[in-house]
Amino acid sequence: MSLISSIAKQPKPRSLRNSFCFSEDNLERLRQIMYFSAAEAGSYLFREGERSNRLLYVQSGNVKATKLMESGKEYIFGLSRAGDFIGQLDPLQESRHFYTAQTMDACEIGVIQNQDLEVLLWQHGDLAVEFAAWMGYMHRLTQTKLRDLLMLSKPGALCSTILRLANTYGVEGNDGTRIAFRLTNSELADYIGCARESVNRMLADLRRAGAISIHDNLITILDKAYLRHISRCELCPAELCRL
Predict the structure, then answer these.
(1) Do domains 24-149 and 153-240 have the same CATH topology?
(2) Could you tell me which of 29, 127, 158, 34 has the C-alpha nearest to residue 87?
(3) At a CB cut-off of 8 Å and minimum separation 6, what does 204 contact?
(4) What share of the chain is helix, strand, coil (3-state, %, to 5)?
(5) What is the pLDDT of residue 11?
(6) Which residue has the higher pLDDT, 105 or 11?
(7) What is the CATH number that goes with domain 153-240?
(8) pLDDT tier at 243, thresholds 50, 70, 90
(9) FRET label pair with 159: which of 11, 25, 195, 235, CA 20 to 30 Å apart?
(10) How far is CA 37 from the centre of its chain?
(11) Is 91 helix (H, G, I), strand (E, B) or coil?
(12) 8 Å CB contact between 149 and 192
């Protein structure tokens, strides 16, 4: 079986981590060259425009990726949780971060220096192939999120974001899929680049349509087919339909 085939056949948990591209052996090799540090809620792991010279691993906690728009509004285009890698590497030139990473709660972060990673990739060809697969996956994930922002209406982008939240934090129940992660309407607005008041109206419309319910600030999806219709869902695999 080829390395790419073995990656594709690895079990993908309900709460998907972007480290699924790596085998357990290679993930352990990466952990061995990490050093860990604690970060308080609201800490900046790196800022947009800073030099990218390390790869980060979320051991615990949640981290949001944000991009400052020309209007000055902050756009949230990703959430990372325990088991996710964060960062960008460019083997051809010195790279700089195109987004900001900020902790949402207390986190433990593993840090891999670029030079240590390069040595490990030279030593283990199978890890190099898996790392290339991870980079390709992260690019595809970014492309699908840009599609939501640029190609969909705001109701469509909101429905797509709710589906992504369900794939990332969803818990199946008798009444539907409950998203076990609280986001304010302002934060949802930052995901799709609109005002909080617009999100309030769109969520109310979805509740009236019977597509979702909201209790204690937690969203439960009652009708996924309705959300997929509004978001012009392309039935992407679960590993791409996540935050």
Answers:
(1) no
(2) 34
(3) none
(4) 40, 25, 35
(5) 41
(6) 105
(7) 1.10.10.10
(8) confident
(9) 11
(10) 21
(11) coil
(12) yes
pLDDT digits (tens, 9 = 90+) for 48-99: 989 888 999 999 999 999 988 777 778 888 889 999 999 887 655 678 888 9
Note the pLDDT of residue 91.
58
Q: Encoding tokens for residue 16?
A: 């998907």
Q: What is the pLDDT of residues 127-178, one digit of tens each?
A: 999 999 999 998 888 888 888 888 889 999 999 999 999 988 888 888 899 9
Helices 185-192 and 154-169 meet at what angle, rounded to 10?
110
Count of Cβ atoms closer than 10 Å to residue 29 Cβ: 16
125: Cα separation from own chain's centroid: 27
Paired residues of 109 in beta bridges: 37, 58
Task: Give the C-alpha separation, 84 to 56, whole Å.
Answer: 8
Provide the terminal-to-terminal Cα distance of the chain, rounded to the nearest Å.
30
Distance CA 103, CA 221 (A): 27
Domain boundaries, given as residue ranges, for the chain: 24-149, 153-240
| The one-letter amino acid at 158 | L
Instruction: Specify the amino acid at residue 200.
Output: N
Whole-angstrom distance, CA of residue 155 vs CA of residue 202: 6
What is the chain's mean pLDDT, rounded?
87
Residue 125 structure tokens = 């060809």
